[in-house]
Amino acid sequence: CSWLVEVKIFCPSGVATQSKNNSNVELFPIPANDELNVSFQSKTESNYSIEIESILGEKMYIQNFRMQDSGKQTRVIDLKELNPGIYFLSFTSGGKKTIKKFIHER
Question: Are 49 and 17 in contact (CB under 8 A)?
């Protein structure tokens, strides 16, 4: 008696990004050390927020901003108080959320 078993393995290559708003969010450098740059572009002026959560879901950083002008902008986030590890950054603008994963090293 012989058995033939077919196994399909799905390995996601990253975190899904919801980006239906007018922003395009980029994080750099990855991996990040003391600072993380959050670059985004918007076609309209609006309020936005940036949150960082640990892999365990703990909120580590929350900041609300007012976008003064449309176009490309960059915010620098100080990571010196965070322990090395994997984190998720949420960028929310106009009721739409984009989630990006990043690694923090020292």
Answer: no
Angle at 30 between CA 28 and CA 34, to 5 degrees: 80
Q: How many residues does the chain have?
A: 106
Q: Per residue in 68-83, is it b (16+ CB within 10 Å) or e — as a string? A: eeeeebeeebebeebe
Q: 54 near 79, Cβ under 8 Å? A: no
CA distance 61 to 69: 24
pLDDT tens series, the chain, 106 aa: 454 544 444 434 444 334 444 458 999 999 999 999 999 987 777 889 999 999 999 999 999 988 777 788 899 999 999 999 999 999 998 888 999 999 999 8
Count of alpha carbons within 13 angstroms of residue 62, beta-carbon side: 2
